[in-house]
Automatic annotation (TrEMBL):
It comes from Trichuris muris. This is G-protein coupled receptors family 1 profile domain-containing protein. Keywords: Membrane, Transmembrane, Transmembrane helix. The keyword Cell membrane does not apply. The chain crosses the membrane at residues 12-32, 52-71, 92-115, 144-165, 189-209, 221-241. The lineage of its organism: Eukaryota, Metazoa, Ecdysozoa, Nematoda, Enoplea.
Length: 265
C-alpha cells in the first residue's frame, strides 16, 4: 500500500507528466485549428483585445519544440554520465521549466510590442496569427528561436544514440544493467524525435529558404498534411497509449485515496 507521504512526493512528477501530455496535444492541435479557421479582418487594437489567441499560439509554438529538447537532454545526460544524471533532481527540472517559461514570457512581450507597433488601420486576418508574420523582426526572431531549439533536440538525441553505440558494456555490472535500461528508454523515443525532425525542423528550415510561389504552394500542402498527422499522432500517443500520462493520473488518484484513508483512521 502506498503511503500518503510517498504519494505526496510523487505528485509533482505526476503533474509534470500530465502537463507534458497536455502541451504536446495543444501544440499538435494548434496549427490545424488556426490554419482552417475562417479568416476575417481585425485591427491591431482588436487583435490585442483577443490576446488569448495570440498568446496561446506563441506559447504552444515554443512548448511544442522546447519539450522535445528537454526530453532529448534528459536522455543524453542519462546515457552519458550516471553522476550527472543523479544530480537531475526535481529542483533542477523546475529550474529548466522555469527557464522555458521565462523565454516564453520574453517572446510574448516582444510579440505584443511588435503588434502594438503596427498601424491602427492595419488589417490582420484570421485569429491574429498573421500579425506574427506582419512584423518582420519578430517573425525572424521567433522562427530562428524555434529552429535553434529543434536542432538542439536533434543534436542531444543524436549524441545519446552515439553514446549508446560507443559504450556497449557486456559486463554484468550495475552500471551495465542501468545503461541497457536507459538505452531501451532512449530508443523508444525515436518516434518522437522523428516527428520533431519532419514536422518541426524541416518546415522551420524551409521557411528561411527563398522558394518560388508554385513550389511553395505544393510544400504548404505537404506541411498541412504533416500537421494533421502530427496532431493525430500526438493526440493518440498522449491520450490513448501514453503510459506516463496514465501513470500521472493514477498517482494523483492514489494520493487522494491515501488522503481519505488517512483521515478515516
Amino acid at each position: 500500500m502506498v503511503s500518503f507521504s510517498s504519494a505526496c512526493k510523487q505528485t509533482p512528477y505526476a503533474i509534470a507528466n500530465i502537463l507534458t501530455g497536455f502541451a504536446f496535444i495543444c501544440s499538435a492541435v494548434r496549427r490545424f485549428i488556426l490554419s482552417t479557421y475562417t479568416p476575417f479582418s481585425l485591427t491591431p487594437l482588436q487583435c490585442l483585445i483577443q490576446a488569448f489567441y495570440l498568446s496561446i499560439y506563441v506559447c504552444c509554438d515554443i512548448l511544442g519544440v522546447a519539450i522535445p529538447v528537454l526530453i532529448s537532454f534528459d536522455r543524453f545526460i542519462a546515457v552519458m554520465s550516471y553522476r550527472l544524471y543523479s544530480l537531475m533532481t526535481l529542483r533542477v527540472a523546475c529550474c529548466l521549466l522555469g527557464l522555458v517559461t521565462l523565454t516564453i514570457i520574453a517572446d510574448l512581450i516582444y510579440c505584443w510590442i511588435s503588434v502594438c507597433s503596427l498601424p491602427d488601420d492595419f488589417a490582420i486576418p484570421a485569429t491574429c496569427t498573421a500579425a506574427l508574420y506582419s512584423v518582420e523582426e519578430y517573425d525572424f526572431f521567433h522562427r530562428m528561436y524555434l529552429t535553434v531549439l529543434s536542432y538542439c533536440a536533434l543534436a542531444f538525441y543524436a549524441g545519446a544514440l552515439m553514446t549508446i553505440v560507443c559504450r556497449r558494456d557486456k559486463e554484468n555490472s550495475v552500471r551495465a544493467a542501468q545503461m541497457k535500461r536507459e538505452a531501451v528508454i532512449t530508443r523508444r523515443l525515436s518516434y518522437l524525435i522523428l516527428l520533431t525532425l519532419f514536422f518541426q525542423t524541416l518546415p522551420l528550415t524551409l521557411s528561411f529558404v527563398e522558394i518560388e510561389m508554385t513550389t511553395m504552394a505544393k510544400i504548404s500542402i505537404v506541411i498541412y498534411v504533416a500537421d494533421v498527422l502530427n496532431m493525430s499522432t500526438f493526440v493518440l500517443i498522449f491520450s490513448a497509449i501514453n503510459p506516463e500520462l496514465r501513470k500521472g493520473f493514477l498517482q494523483i488518484c492514489c494520493r487522494k485515496r491515501a488522503s481519505v484513508a488517512g483521515q478515516t483512521k
